[in-house]
Amino acid sequence: MAMADMREPIESGCPDGFQYMHPAMRKNFGMWKYHEDPQPGVLKHVSKTGDVVYTVKAGTQRILDVYTIRKLTAIGDKFADGYIRFTIRSNIEYTVSDEAKVQPLIKALEDEGFVVGGTRNSVAMISHTQGWLHCDIPGTDASGVVKSMMDELIDEFKQWNMPNRVHITTSCCQINCGGQGDIAINIQHTKPPKIAHDLVANVCERPTVVARCPVAAIRPAMVNGKPSLEVDEKKCICCGACFPPCPPMQINDPEHSKLAIWVGGNHSNARSKPSFQKLVAAGVPNNPPRWPEATAIVKRILKEYKEGAKDWERINDWIDRIGWPRFFEVTGLPFTKYHIDNWRGARNSLNASTHIRF
Ligand code: SF4
Ligand code: SF4
To answer: Ligand 1, residues 177, 180, 252, 262: which to mutate, most atoms within 8 A of Cβ?
Structure first.
């Protein structure tokens, strides 16, 4: 290809969203007066100009195959106005400006096996991280956990039964994305990495790996005459941060990589300042293909929240009101030594609030 034919790279983020928006959304941008929730999965937005648009939300998985996308877009062309968007929780939303289109659109989606819901005080679609498909450090398959849990929570997605909205997240490693919802299901490594010494010299940049460790547990070492690394296992907090820059630091393990369940945190409070999530269950078996142990714990927390929280209390607000001892009592989760955060380094290195400190 001649140089003149080459496309200019665009490296400044995502394209302008306005070109993809429903014309009524473009026309009324910044002029919305109020919105209503006519039924689960449907939003009605009313503009100051008098225009009204309806949004219909259907649950879809984060990683969609091309056949499903074609099916969804064909529904959008036939039953909606041909405009869709995907939400941050990977749900598809159709926008229509005619109320008469809402019910046929819902029927078309449900006839094809899609589930309409996920608005207001429902359990929204679990947001999942990328897992084996795109990422280089997962310790489990995030989409599998999401699928098995949503299969059991689907009625809560379709209805408005919760005191407030519930956002659940997964995280397939212990250090990066995921884990900000009302309930988070995160991987938890429970043993230090095992080093494949023969590979270290070929694969890893040792200074990078040494610098990665948050507790300075990794040192350069010569093993069998070759440059390698060693780990001070007394210091290691089993975070897995050394695995991405150095895959021979094998930390994933079918038996010792577990799941941990956390609640509260940034997204989980309606009326208080941001806070960290708290660990409520540790060492839960990472048990594919259906993860029954983790699912049972999530369902138990949701049941108690549904029965015990006041209207509009998010999970964090509910726990703040009843207190942690009562939370463990009602959910039947054992409180163990693993729930006590005794890592003193956090005092110096983690900023525990969003307030700027000088
Ligand atoms: S949670 Fe970790 S392993 Fe999973 S996609 Fe994010 S960075 Fe990758
Ligand atoms: S797992 Fe974390 S704490 Fe342990 S050696 Fe690796 S980076 Fe350091």
So the answer is: 177
Please give the helix or strand (H or E) that residue 25 lies within, else none. Answer: helix 23-27
Residue nearest to atom 4 of ligand 1 (CA): 172
Ligand 2: which of 231, 233, 256 to mutate, most ligand atoms within 8 Å of CB?
231
The region that residue 179 occupies, defined by phi over 0 for left and psi between -120 and 50 for alpha, beta otherwise, is: left
d(CA 287, CA 29): 47
Q: What is the pLDDT along the chain (358 residues), one digit of tens a residue?
A: 556 777 777 777 778 889 999 999 999 999 999 999 999 999 999 999 999 999 999 999 888 899 999 999 999 999 999 999 999 888 999 999 999 999 999 999 999 999 999 999 999 999 888 888 888 888 888 888 888 999 999 999 999 999 999 999 998 888 888 777 899 999 999 999 999 999 998 899 899 999 999 888 999 999 989 999 999 999 998 999 999 889 999 999 889 999 999 998 777 777 777 777 889 999 999 999 999 999 999 999 999 999 999 999 999 999 999 999 999 999 999 998 888 877 666 666 554 555 544 4
Locate 308 and state its tokens: 């015990």
Beta carbons of 109 and 58 less than 8 angstroms apart = yes
Structure tokens at 324: 């942690």
Nearest to 111 by CA among 160, 74, 84: 74
φ, ψ (nearest 5 deg) of residue 188: -140, 110
Residue 240 near ligand 2, beta carbon < 6 Å: yes
Identify which ligand lies nearest to the alpha carbon of 241: 2
Q: How far is CA 30 from the centre of its chain?
A: 29
- Predicted model pTM: 0.88
Rounded Cα gap, residues 155 and 221, in angstroms: 55
